[in-house]
Design goal:
Chain lengths: 892, 892
């Protein structure tokens, strides 16, 4: 056993010994040490649990004597003997890990009772019914959680007896009835365990302790740990505590109180109180608990003591507490305190108020908000209280609630949207061809795709609710219906869905407006004060740009130009450009596109006046702008059958072109800078449009900071070639306008080779923007869509990958490339500006990594901007606390 | 001008000043310095050329005086004056870069002649016809190469005069005729250049020198440098040399002699001699030159002097020489010597013989062979002398010549092949479905695809001739014909093609058998002695394994198991496995596949007895084993129209499965270890088959070294999971057989993340094998097929990439990952075995990199094994000479 201390009396522990004593044990110790009325007890450490798991029986044998000594000390304090024949000492045995884990064995109350001591209890309390009922409860709990006999088996026996005695409630059973039940339980244990119910209190205690230890590795606990990513080697502590009884009459009771309202954050105690009851009676549903206020009238002294305790504990722990208490015959006992769970709104208000009350600093307030809570605050959500019928569940791709008529294609969505109808676009999956439908729809629902499929990315970018991968929807697009289970939904039927929950409901379900409380604004202001990274937004339209500004973005980190060609009237011209049979025809189409692009850029640059706007030149492969081969060949056939030879052959020309553009792996194909180099007219047109827009705004006195970003660069010469084209074009516009036009030219870093050769690339780039979506795809060799639908879920389930690398940046692989590129890029060009514009730019864990890697800014969807602001502030605070980590991050 | 020396007299130079004096200049200087009869002269340095390119006119002006001084020195030596009125000094002006470049201006002879000195020449020689003919030649050459007037324009004028004078040959023109021609030339120059033909010899010389300098950057030279990867900043030297005349009668003449036969390597002088002629007369085709032997009878003394000179120069330069000489009136003059170009066979023989003669060491002999020459030696080639009609040209994907009947589908290829016919499979492109056809065909010809498309890789792997991307073939597979220009070739027609040249011919063209000469075997033996890297082969069948052994492979570095499922009878079972609707059905199919796999492995392990065989578990995505959607839906429709409902719905089930397996980017999709983990039955079956095969062979007393290789690992846990499965399965076989089975388990490193986290991966891997094909795809973000057909050629043409990274490993990007992985893998596991099995394993440049990176072995197609052996030997020798490079390579 060595010299390790395996057991601590409550008097010996402290709040900061959570790793040793568990959450409950350290709280009990802390409350004891500050003089609060806690029934005495002791805690077996989590390390004892781990040692038992490792070494087994011999270790447990060696624990017996220390346990015996601890019990003896408890007996001396209480002046009673565990399971003594007169006035017996009874104890509770509770598990309590450092991190709360509902998967483990929880509680055995009233331990120490046996056939003899129950009589002692009856005699001492003068209440035989109480004593036998307590014994019955003990046997049932012990039998269930320690001996492993199903709860129902006990309930069944109890019900039988109640039935026989004509009793409606448990409390209607008299002592005889209870004795019979105890006899039944005894037989049940004998039948199930081939042994008698243990009568020796010490044996009861040892069995209960061992059961807690064993529960650390039971299946539920293991699964819970996996789901919640709790390490397997923490172990659980075991608390053995003298029993107090809330069921000793009208001056007794049990309750739970939050020091503030956990839903709203209002600074009043909030909770429930059940007179004359033990804790588990609440669970048994015998009586409805009263609001804790009720105690004020019933036992005003106790209530005041409780309120004072709330204040004391909140100040002591510097956070809102969730407190369990019992009143025994007019005396208040505290059984647990812990940080209280709270709704997002309450979390903000409490953090804010605690600063006002001088309890915590602004920095602590910032660190206490879970950035994901911000998501829920910022979107309209389905009213969780409202009645509803769940039709299906999918992946929660973009938060927010949407209600509307079902449509099955983008054109209809656009048409009905134009008529002022609210529609939900339902598709197998979406393609860039559907953009106008997504724009027009209130929300998007797809039966296929992962969290980062086209629909998900586009919808998130637009802040539009979206559920993807809703595989139980059987869509018949031609028949314009979908089936979900037995329900058939037709085009025009109304549905509702909640993109934060991933649930689809029949009909209209009430939704709740998001709120920007003043506490929210104040807290975000504090966050902005402390963060060191900039927060930019990914935005492609003037509307998105304005929204981003409202949400606090300090620039646009990614303006995708491809979506600008997707409106029907532009798509026609774009297709003409692609299909051009000679340079003149192509140039004509480009000339037609140029003023359209220019007006896009004017709008965006104006909305972002004074702030940088990073515009990415055309990135996707050209076939994304053309119809699919199926569509073309069926249109051709249709036209021909109507005698339209000319129309048919035009379709066939297009078909040939599309076939020529088809690629085995478009993700790795002819796109980005590769397109810019092989078809320079497009980049030249886009560059002209950018700088003509800039010139126009400058003339109007508006400050602009356009930055031109070249996508998919892997070799410095690709960038050098394209940079020259952009520079020459910009200078041409300067010559034409006679103005000096500000600009920066830089590149995405989104293939491994770019990161590996960042020193060379930095000679041609004024800024780097990590495209961590594509960088993750190429570093892992994962096609995002294929991986998420085919094997990634399996990998996550089997813990082969710790996280979805498209959600949380993979630090070891992708992150290593990011750090290499930042380091070698800055070594070559010290004033290199470095940011990230992949989806990870809005993920708090990833943001912490980007802070450590030394990035200048993150860029994310407009609706994630507040989250990123908060997460960046947290990252700055944490890295200031852990300077070693930053140094390693920036220098490793 | 600084202190730089821009001009060297021949006496001042040496052989090792090639970078300064160019190839020709340094050879002339060297021959001068060893006392050989070289007409005196001087050389303007290549640095002068570069400085002229940089600084232009002012620099050239400053050169005038030094040139004048050099001419003066020459005049003093010769006792004549340049262009003097009596006995004029004439010179030749020749370009001569360090690397021979036919793209540049080459030669102006007889410079110094003008209207006056031509008379002096006539007087001195007493041969007016000679003098005027020489002047005519000079004007023509100068007019063409210096003044840039088309050669044809001069020829036309000459022909007119000959016609008018009734002359058949140039030599039939008398002095008057020649004077008229000179007059015509004078007018031509005046018309074209708006000036008179320059009469001042100094001006002639300066113009000629400047023309040589200018020619460094003419288009032909630039293209030539790009094609041959010659740096742009070398510059060319200019040689100015006193003229000697081979056209001064029967005791004069001009010739070229190789010191050994450049076709066979036989150790006798070999060349041509043209009596009474200047060098360009050979080109003009006036007379057929005689074999150089002819000189023996005509001028035995001169002949002996020439033979002695051959011996002297060969010993001096320690290599076979290509010597230009002129005999003027019984005196031998040497005008050039250089290493002689030679056929592959000759190269081997010469290197071999020079070792025997004690001229060079074995190591030098090894370094002198171009590994690519070995390719040509090892394959049957089209007889280049035979008459033939070229139908089309494509990419030379796999060397060797094939003749056979054209077939348009794999099934027919297999059927006719089974009947003993020799067939050529002609397809748009091939897929894994075509494997049986490729196996049966003598060669494969496709109209699409790049050097690394499916057909190319498979054919190279099988050592089968192949041409791909033959875009001028218009294939009508349904009509079973193809059109090439005006020729229509039908199924059953015979064609021939040469995969080393990329040419397709009509009908049967004679081919030449490859030879393994004894010199070849000796040289390869020497190579094996010095190389430090192992050479393994990529081989999937016992036949390939045996062939690899014959070609010197020391193991199999990549045995792909997927091809083993491609024969029709196995494909059926494989498809059943994939289509299985429950685990039992899948297990049954796997059970059926197991003995087939086992027999494959037995054959391969036996063929490689005593050597390691690295078997890669199944890698490609499953849809590669299923028919295409088009095929399935048309079959279904056909079956239905014939009333076969059951058959049709089976096809539709398959169609649904195929659709379910389809991926956006299969290269980055559900394949490799991802398949192994999500469908573990396949890997388990393959592992059983491997170790059962091993057990069977061990029982028969055969030594086996099976190594199991897991493809596409990106995270150590993927490998750990799979390794456990393999280990458990192997131990199970050990238990069943009661034998101890040798094994190694390792992984491919073929995605960047694997290289970046190689230290972690090394904890689970006993060996790494770099899959540089996929690693190149993922590092660049290039899909190989898409890149080669869409933009890679453009990139190479525009010099955006220096090399095709799928041919020569990209050192900066991919190579950096390789070095990182080797270093960190070995740091974690010092005995880690590291090899490469991508296409680069057979590329000499890449092999040199792998040597520097510290790899243990390379693995390549069987037919590239000898090349790899030689390249590895060269790399070892070079790295031994340049230890700094190795250190940097292994440690950077």
């Amino acid at each position: 056993m060595g010299d390790a201390k395996w057991i601590y009396a409550f008097e010996e522990g402290r709040a900061d010994m959570r790793d040793i004593l568990g959450g409950k044990g350290s709280a009990l110790a802390e409350m004891t040490s500050i003089g609060l009325p806690v029934p005495p007890g002791f805690t077996l450490t989590a390390q004892a649990c781990i040692e038992y798991v490792r070494a087994g029986e011999p270790f447990f044998d060696a624990l017996r004597e220390p346990i015996r000594e601890s019990v003896k000390a408890l007996e001396q304090r209480a002046g009673k003997t565990l399971g003594g024949a007169t006035d017996p000492l009874l104890v509770s045995v509770r598990s309590g890990a450092a991190i709360s884990m509902p998967g483990m064995m929880d509680t055995v109350l009233n331990l120490g009772l046996n056939d003899e001591s129950v009589q002692g209890l009856a005699a001492t309390t003068g209440d035989a019914r109480f004593a036998y009922d307590t014994y019955r409860r003990f046997m049932q709990m012990f039998g269930n959680v320690v001996l492993g006999i199903g709860h129902d088996r006990f309930e069944e026996l109890l019900e039988n007896r109640k039935h026989r005695h004509g009793a409606r409630l448990d409390t209607d059973l008299d002592v005889d009835g209870l004795r019979e039940v105890i006899g039944d339980y005894r037989s049940l244990v004998r039948d199930e365990c081939q042994r008698d119910f243990p009568q020796d209190p010490e044996e009861q205690l040892l069995l209960a302790i061992r059961a807690v230890f064993d529960s650390w590795d039971n299946e539920r606990a293991v699964v819970y740990r996996r789901v919640h990513r709790i390490p397997d080697d923490l172990g659980t502590a075991v608390n053995v505590q003298v029993m107090v009884f809330g069921n000793r009459g009208d001056t007794s009771g049990t309750g739970v109180v939050f020091t503030r309202n956990p839903n709203t954050g209002e600074p009043q105690p909030y909770g429930e109180y059940l007179p004359n009851a033990q804790g588990e009676d609440v669970v048994a549903g015998i009586r409805t608990p009263l609001p804790v206020d009720a105690l004020r009238e019933r036992q005003p002294g106790i209530y005041q003591q409780l309120v004072d305790t709330c204040t004391l504990l909140e100040r002591h722990y510097r956070d809102m507490q969730d407190i369990e208490f019992t009143v025994q015959e007019g005396r208040l006992f505290l059984l647990q305190t812990r940080g209280g769970k709270r709704a997002p709104r309450a979390a903000l208000r409490i953090a804010h108020d605690l600063v006002g009350e001088g309890v915590i600093s602004k920095e602590e307030a910032i660190l206490r908000i879970d950035p994901e809570d911000i998501v829920r605050l910022l979107h309209r959500n389905v009213d969780r209280e409202a009645p509803k019928t769940v039709l299906a569940r999918g992946l929660p791709a973009s938060p927010g609630a949407a209600t509307g008529e079902v449509v099955f294609d983008a054109d209809t969505a656009e048409r009905l949207g134009g008529e002022g109808k609210t529609v939900i676009l339902v598709r197998g999956q979406t393609t860039p061809d559907d953009i106008h439908g997504i724009v027009a729809a209130a929300g998007v629902l797809t039966s296929r795709g992962g969290m980062t499929c086209h629909a998900a990315i586009v919808a998130r970018g637009m802040g539009k609710p979206c559920i993807v991968g809703c595989e139980s929807l059987l869509i018949d697009a031609k028949g314009r219906t979908f089936r979900a289970g037995d329900t058939v939904v037709r085009a025009g039927d109304v549905i509702t869905f909640d993109g934060a929950l991933g649930e689809v409901y029949a009909g209209e379900v009430p939704t709740i407006e998001p709120e920007f409380s003043s506490e929210f604004r104040t807290l975000m202001g504090w966050a902005d004060e402390v963060r060191t990274m900039g927060v930019h937004a990914n935005a492609d339209t003037p509307e998105d740009a304005s929204r981003s500004r409202e949400l606090g973005a300090e620039g646009i980190g990614l303006c995708r130009t491809e979506h600008m060609f997707m409106t029907p009237e532009r798509l026609v011209v774009m297709r003409r450009m692609i299909m051009a049979e000679d340079e003149a025809e192509r140039a004509a189409a480009l000339d037609e596109l140029e003023p359209m692009q220019q007006s896009d850029f004017e709008g965006i640059l104006e909305a972002m006046a004074g702030h940088p706007v990073t515009i990415r030149l055309l990135d996707p492969p050209l076939h994304e702008f053309l119809p699919g081969t199926d569509e073309l060949s069926s249109t051709a056939a249709a036209l021909r059958s109507h005698g339209d030879e000319e129309g048919a052959s035009a379709q066939e020309r297009a078909l040939k072109k599309v076939r020529g553009l088809q690629e085995s792996n478009p993700m790795l194909g002819h796109r980005g800078v590769r397109l810019g180099i092989t078809m320079p007219g497009v980049y030249r047109m886009q560059t002209r449009a950018i700088f003509q827009a800039a010139a126009k705004l400058i003339e109007r006195g508006i400050e602009v900071h356009p930055e031109v970003m070249i996508p998919l660069v892997g070799h410095v010469r690709e960038l050098a070639w394209t940079r020259r084209l952009v520079e020459e074009t910009a200078r041409q516009v300067e010559k034409e306008t006679g103005m000096e036009l500000p600009r920066r030219i830089g590149t995405m870093i989104e293939v491994p080779r770019a990161a590996l050769t960042a020193d060379a690339i930095a000679t041609e780039a004024e800024f780097f923007s990590f495209g961590t979506n594509d960088l993750t795809q190429t570093t892992f060799g994962f096609s995002r869509d294929d991986a998420e639908s085919k094997f990634l879920h399996h990998y996550l389930h089997e813990k082969i990958l710790p996280e979805n690398p498209f959600t949380v940046v993979d630090e070891d692989g992708v992150g290593q490339l990011v750090k290499m590129a930042v380091r070698s890029g800055r070594a070559r060009r010290p004033d290199l500006v470095v940011g990230v514009c992949g989806e990870h730019g809005g993920d708090p864990t990833s943001i912490a990594f980007f802070q450590a890697a030394g990035l200048d800014y993150v860029s994310c969807s407009p609706f994630r901007v507040p989250i990123a602001r908060l997460a960046a502030a947290q990252a700055a605070l944490r890295s200031a606390r852990e300077p070693a980590l930053v140094a390693e991050g920036a220098g490793a």
